[in-house]
Amino acid sequence: MHSKKQTSIKYYVGIDVGSASVRAALVDEFGTVVAHAEQPIQIWEPQPDHYEQSSADIWAACCTVTKKVVCGVDASWIRGVGFDATCSLVVMDKQFQPLAVNSEGQTHRNVIMWMDHRAVSQVDRINATQHRVLSYVGGVMSVEMQPPKLLWIKENLKESCWEKAGYFFDLPDFLSWKATGVTARSLCTLVCKWTYTSDGGWDDSFWKIIGLEDLVKDKYEKIGNHVLSPGESVGKGLTPEAAKDLGLPEGIAVAASLIDAHAGGLGVIGADVKGHNLPCENQPITSRVALICGTSSCHMGVSETPIFVPGVWGPYFSAMVPGLWLNEGGQSATGKLIEHVVRGHVAFPELQSRAAASAQSIYTYLNSHLDLIKKSLPVGFLTVDLHVWPDFHGNRSPLTDLTLKGMVVGLTLSRGLDELALIYLATIQAIALGTRHILETMQAAGHRINTVFLCGGLSKNPLFVQMHADITGKPVVLSKEVESVLVGAAILGACASGDFASIQEAMAKMGKIGRVVQPNHEHKRFYDKKYEVFLKLVEHQREYRSIMNSS
């Protein structure tokens, strides 16, 4: 353990706050995860479309997992800490105490989650302004961004929350503040979720026109007037209090943070691909898209010049990779949708018992069951008469229509395990068809994407990966480390420590390719037809809505 070779290795801690859990990893300078820990965090759903969390609960979980991954490691080998998190809204008073974001006055519930859709009327009014800043979010702001949530708080919790608020943080920025005591914000969060622009900063006219002129008066102190690039060192590193909480030495470098999906992108998109016979070899990084798949999915494409893609967020300058413009597509429910469909099926108890009896996860069992029932057909062809439109939680990209609903066409009276396996397959295909829809929209606007780099929890499911390769027609690259988001967070810590000259250098050294999944081009005609049906589904939904809403 204490050989010269090992003592020369440098380590970094990556901390990732997802929707339902906090994870930490100890990552070495070569991008290898040497220790990993996870801790669940609580979600409250007091009413439909309202999702809340506790910043105290989240920080406590960060401390628990970090102490676990650094246990037994010589602290002098740990050089930096990086955080990423969901783009949830944290509200604190002027003394940095939590404020309730609910009418019940539950102050510990001071976080409005990213997937909270309470601010629908507010975002509709914001979009009706057609303000110029909206051109940087695909022309239409999402209800998942922060301005509509801030407006909701002002209109619904004015006395109890809005007037008492001292600081509104994006969750990644809350974490770097908690670690360092510095209220600086990351360029990533402000540009992607708050309408800040890297060249012009805040636009006073936007905040005034939407009714949040209060934020302009104090020179944006409540939402951030000190901005750092991701990976930049924050303050003087860990404070004594935070160091004690996390089990790390005081003063270790802390990086300006990233949104979780962007950390995943950082962990995979810059990897060295030599020798893998990929179309992106010897091509600029702009030929790649990072697809981060968990509860939801994000599609990250970069370009050297700004590309405005209808219905896709961005272009954001330096929001993920310094010096490059970022476009971000997304699907609001992917892992969550698969879970919803599978667990809600009448045959789910049978699936559970069979999977348990064979010591397999439910998804591994379903994949095996599909192989059993396919007979001579390719697995994907089993859904020739079963089609899903996956927007059970609205469409984020490229249609930016929060009101769209999920659809299933081709149901029968059958209730068994075969039918559960088929609807599971059709749901995965629908998610992959949604990805194809997003990528085709990005390419029509000027992106030149030929390779998909996939990470996140769903990358562990081989059926999910193969369907994305077959349906998009592009090779899918899986990283050597499944926990690419944590590697991305650790890359931030590595940059903050000064051990790498740039994020790009750290990405190339710490991002490693694992497996490449090629598309089966013999199946192209079938999936082209599925895609044609897929696009017809949303046409029909809009058509029947028009009929029902006509006078």
UniProtKB/TrEMBL annotation:
This is FGGY carbohydrate kinase domain-containing protein. It comes from the Eukaryota. The lineage of its organism: Eukaryota, Metazoa, Chordata, Craniata, Vertebrata. Keywords: Kinase, Transferase. GO terms for biological process: pentose metabolic process. Residues 290-496 form the Carbohydrate kinase FGGY C-terminal domain. Residues 11-267 form the Carbohydrate kinase FGGY N-terminal domain. Belongs to the FGGY kinase family. One of its GO terms (cellular component) is cytoplasm. It comes from Penelope pileata. One of its GO terms (molecular function) is D-ribulokinase activity.
